[in-house]
Design brief:
single chain, 10 helices, Rossmann fold, six-stranded parallel β-sheet, 211 residues, 6 strands, 2 domains
Length: 211
């Protein structure tokens, strides 16, 4: 195998959460700010340094209220969450091959557990690094390095798979093999290509031949 240790982003990579993220961002900004934003404006910082930072980019003086309204709207929507197409089979195969798998996400650990209660894939991952477990966040490499440390892995011999520009930047900063996936529908292909990932894949099954 090429990489014994493979870390994954969660939203838009393992779970197909782009639609519920967008819906909750739109709900929060309408209710708190009384205005509509384009999809691009609402999603531009998703997958980066966390929900508070996303809201700060929109309205610095209303961050706390935006976060509260977002979470109240978003958490019930996890009842309709599904895995990204093909990801369950890919993760099961990687696990059966003896890969050491982990999740590194901007989501709080409690919200990760909420996602895995609906999409029962959590048992395939040896470690989960939530956004509330590190002082710095993607695109800083700290969360990825923590994930590698927990698995006893050399970052330079690990891969990180994600769907956002922040994922690619963090992987490169951590000296990991950076894999960008295009199925998340949160960030467009051009933004991912601009970060020059080590690989880009369009279907989950392509990961098996790559990793």
């Amino acid at each position: 195998m090429r990489f014994e240790t493979v870390l994954f982003d969660l939203d838009g990579t393992v779970v197909d959460s782009g639609a519920i993220i967008l819906a909750s961002m739109r709900h929060a900004t309408r209710e708190v700010l009384g205005r509509d934003y384009s999809d691009e404006e609402l999603l531009q910082t998703v997958g980066g340094p966390g929900l508070e930072a996303q809201m700060h980019a929109l309205a610095p003086e209303h961050v706390d209220r935006l976060v509260d309204v977002y979470r109240a709207h978003n958490e019930p929507l996890h009842d309709e969450l599904e895995a990204c197409a093909g990801m369950e089979d890919v993760l099961v195969q990687l696990h059966e091959e003896g890969r050491r798998l982990g999740i590194v996400t901007a989501k709080r650990r409690a919200t990760v557990e909420l996602a895995f209660a609906q999409v029962p894939l959590g048992h395939l991952f040896e470690t989960i690094v939530g956004g509330d477990e590190t002082a710095r966040h993607k695109p800083d490499p700290e969360p990825l390095l923590l994930g590698a440390e927990r698995l006893g892995a050399d970052p330079a011999s690990a891969a990180y798979v994600g769907d956002s520009p922040f994922d690619v930047r963090a992987a490169k900063a951590a000296r990991m093999f950076a894999v960008a996936v295009t199925w998340g529908r949160i960030h467009d292909r051009a933004r991912l290509e601009a970060e020059r990932p080590d690989a880009m894949v369009d279907r989950a099954e392509e990961l098996l031949g790559l990793l």
